[in-house]
Amino acid sequence: MKDQHGRKIDYMRISVTDRCNLRCLYCMPKEGIESVLHEDILTFEEIIRVVEAAAKIGIQKIKITGGEPLVRKGIVDLIKRLKNIQGIEQVTLTTNGVLLKDVVKELLEAGLDAINISLDTLNRIKYQRITRKDKLEEVLLGIEKAVALGIKVKINCVPMKEFNEADLVDIAAFAKNRKIDVRFIELMPIGLGKSFQLITYQDVKEKLEKIYGRSQSSDIVLGNGPAKYYNFKDFQGSIGFISAITNEFCEECNRIRMTAEGDLKLCLHYNKGIALRPLLRNDINKEELQKILEEAIYIKPRNHCFLQPSSNDLENKNMVQIGG
Question: Are 28 and 320 in contact (CB under 8 A)?
Answer without folding.
Answer: yes
